[in-house]
TIGR02680 family protein (Kribbella speibonae), 1240 residues
Amino acid sequence: MTVTLPPRPGSADGLDERAPTHHPDRWRLHRAGITNVWYYYDNEFDFSGGRMILRGTNGSGKSRALEMLLPFLLDADRRRMDSTGSGTVKLETLMRYGGEEQPNRLGYLWLELTRENDGPEFLTVAALIRYSASTSRAKVWYFITPQRVGEDLVLLDAGRHPLGLKNLTDLIGEENITESPSVHCDRVAHRVFGLSGQSGKERYSGLLQLLHTLRSPDVGNRIEDNKLAKILSDALPPLSEHALDTAGSHLDSLSEARQAQQDLAQTQDQVRTFMATYRRYVRTLLSSAISTVENQAGSVRAAATAAADLRREARRLYEDATSEDRQAGELASTAEDLRADIEGWTKLPAYQAGLQLEGLAERASALRTAMQARIDASESTRETESDAVGAANRSAGELTLAVSTAEDLRTRCRESLLSAGVPVGALPGPIRSTRIEAEPLEEFVRMSAEDELQPLLRPRPDVLTVSPGQLDAAAVTVDTLKESAERRAAAATNRGLTAQKLVREQAEVERADEAAGRAEDKASDAVELAEQNAEERDDAARSLAREWRDWTTSGHSAEVLGEVDWSTGPVAGLLLDINALIGDSLEPRLEQLDQAAQAAASPARLRLAGSLAELDMADKNDTQRRGQLESEQSALRADEDPEPELLPWAQTMPAGAVPLWRCIDFTDAADIDDTRGAIEAALQASGLLTAAVTADTTLTAANGQVLLTHESKIARQPVTSLLRPDTESPVAAETVGEILSRIGLGSDGHATWVDVDGRWGNGLLSGRYRADHPRHIGAAARQAARQARLAEIAIELVSLDRVAEARQVEREAIESAVSRLESHLMTSPRSGPLENLRWAAKMSYQAAEVAKEEAARARGLAEQLRQAWTQASDEHRRLCDHSNLPQTVDDLAAVQRNAEESARQCGGLSTAIRTTSRHRDVHAEGLGRVDAAAGRRRVAEGEVQGAWRRWRDVAQQLETIRKDFGTGTDEIMRRIDEAKRQADELELKVAAGRRRAGTLVTNAAVVESQANQAELTAQQEQQILAGTLGHLRTQLTLPGVVEAATHRRSAAGSEDMEQAVRLITDLSEESPDLARACRQLRETVQAGDTSAPIDENSLLKAQQTLDRELSSSFDIVLSVVEGVRLFELIDADGRFPIALAAQRLDERVDQARAALSEREYQVFSEYVVGGVADELRRRLGDADQLVRAMDGTLKGITTSQGIRVRLKWELLHEDASAIGRIRTLCMRSSAFRSRADTAS
């Protein structure tokens, strides 16, 4: 048991409440209290002058009371409530013990402070604790108020229940209550100790440290163990939490920064390792692309040179053929003249000449007509050839237009394919046509018979070359690209459908999350409602318990029910514990509780019913008695003698028998009533009076037992001296006399006797019975007895009337008591509302459980949907990355549209290429028709020439005959021979010349065709060069490629690379400096690289390693553009090519390393050496001041031996030690400490 010390003797009022005269404005402890915490229910402690002594045995709760009050109410530190510092005392434990029957327990801890500052002033510092047994959690609200506990702040209501939070808030105001320990601590520091700000908080922390040190229960033992210095050191103010937290947080941040820097360095190493592989991969690709460009440039130069050479050779051969043909024609003309002369000369003889002149003239005319027809026919063939050339040129124009259309479609198709993300490397090169306008060929043609060969500009078809040469293969390639675009459109469509599905599923996931949130809110509301219903149920349970307490202890209940033992019934638990009915406890059962009043009323009911029954029985008995009395009265009034009372063992009498009392009477000797009464009583007690008298002088008892027979002895002193036969006896007097003679008078050894004092004997039986006077023996006695009896009956009847009236009054009182009992029972507490609230609480708890299950299912479904959506999204992302497709619906729709447009463009391009191919075939057919027309023209012109020669021969013969008619024969023969020789030689020369001319024309046509093909090849090689060069330029412009190739090079190497890239970008594919630019670019790319080329398998292995190592810090995106694998790293800063990301990582690592070093120096110099050291200096100064103040306090104190006490504050270590050196350095302010000292 813990109590406050009794008043000191000699004080006026028992307590010396006088405060010290100094510092009247300081608060002092005045009262403290514990309400419904631990095993304390409502305890209050008074302080005397701010002091209190708790006295009690070990384990009585002294330490526990202080642990709950101080300094907990001052610092609100639930972790340091235990005075031993072990941390074993917890609010949950304090609230659980002593309140096992309270599932929701409320308790208060409070201190009342007072001060005299212009009058008494009070301040209450308290805590409200609410404990829930279901959650085993205790929640605390702290408050400070000027209201006093027990006066204007009542913590227990009329039912002795602790005040709830709402009622407390209404009393003291919401602004005075807080759940925050730090806020409460600051409020106490400010309002009680006048401390505010950071310095005030630190001073208050020091005060609390002192309190915690001094309140330890073994502090006295430690002093006795010479540990005073240790105690005082422990009690010194601690270092500022702010300074330590600041330094600690910055040191923690340094640890975090170091870890982050190490992680960044590891990431840098991983990226560098990958970049070493990726750099080799990029250099290998670029070197291969440069080699391809160089080789293609060589192919272009070789093809162009070959085409030019062939074109020059064809032109020379045509010129040589023309010259040979012209020379052959001249020689042939000379030879023909000679042949004509010969023919003319052979016919010079006069007689032949005369005879032949007319025939020759007719023949010459016919030949001329035939020749003119041949000339007209050749003119027609020339017109046909000209028309064929015109048609060929027109088809060439159509072909050129088709080529232009196809090229436009190819350009649009390329752009569309690029926008759709379809690789265009397989797309045919530019579709071009080269049309060379052919100069008319000048030839000598015979236009008339009279004229010589005249020059004629013969039209030639334009030379048209189309590239690429394999248009059908190009169309098939475009069809393949169309299929690729269609596949990409289909893939984009499928991915788009998946993306749309993911969007819908994401919305479904969000709806599921919202539904789970709503379900959780609903579950929370249901739980709150269940708790509210449980509180209402428990409040109703307590109210019902209080009602039962009030009802059972009320004076009316005691008056109506009488003494009731409530300790054994269902109400007993309620009387002992007001919380007996809270929760869903089945004991006591509510139906039993509802019957408790009735059960308690049962004794009263039985008592009242018994009283009524007794009254009824008394009425019945009195009624029966009255009837008996009235019957007896009537019989007595009719002179009927009353029968004497039969003995218990004698209930019947033989039939026809006469009792003895009717046959006898007293003699005159028995003249005293007392004697007569004694004799009659003795006879009655012995059974002789009521015994039956028979004629054979036998006296038989009423139950058939024979008392006297005629064989019985005659008494020596019979009773006949006092008794005689009655004169009106129905039995003969002799018989009666015989019987009386056998009954002795007095105890003289006779078997059957009676005496005058009422004694009697009959065999072994004897006894005594007296009566005042006789009632049955003798007529006079019987008459007197009748009169006396009538008087008694009259009195008894009057008494019965009075008793009946009294019973009626008593009956009415009892009925009134029954009515009051029933009315009072109607006021007994009813458990119906509690039953309803229990049902409501049960239903709400079940609803809460169902709601929680539904919330759990909803959350599980949401998590399941989210997990499925995440997996589907990751799979969608992986498939999109694998197909180089975007991921969003809009982007995929754009890709789908672009791919479908690309497929459409590819279809149009394929149609255009095939149309171009058909136009080329038409043009080729036109050229074939030109060749055929030229052939027919050459035949016709040949026929003209033959007809002209035949006509000319005849005409020359005719002219020769006419001219030379008369020339001699010898001269003519000589001329003929010479002319034949010359003609033969000339014809041989003409044949040789024409053969040479034909060969030259044939060779020229072949060379010209070869030149055309070489030019076409050169154009194709040029296009291929443009493609390879464009491919190289595209690769060089891809993000991160150049940076990867020059990774970790010097600035000069990077600048050389930029110059080489700029040079090859500015040059056209036809530039003669292209080879030099390629050579410079190759040297720049391969500069300083002696490693072997790398394949994609090695790159993929390095990529897998990089994915695994960087999965937690970066997202790695792979794309393939122009055959180059591009890697990008994505982090919070954005999306960067891997080479640029590697450079940024290097910069970040260097910056982080430098920043970390600078940060370390700054933290240690500013926060550790500066902040903590300055705080230590202040604390050392405070300690010195405290020691000096303590010395001042102890200055006037001496021991019983007159010894004074002084304290000395010094370090345990020498000044030369490390700790002493630190103390010396710390005693200097950081503002005046040198940099050397700071470094030290």
In short: The radius of gyration is 74 Å. The first strand starts at residue 3 and ends at 4. Residues 1-21 have pLDDT under 50 and may be disordered.
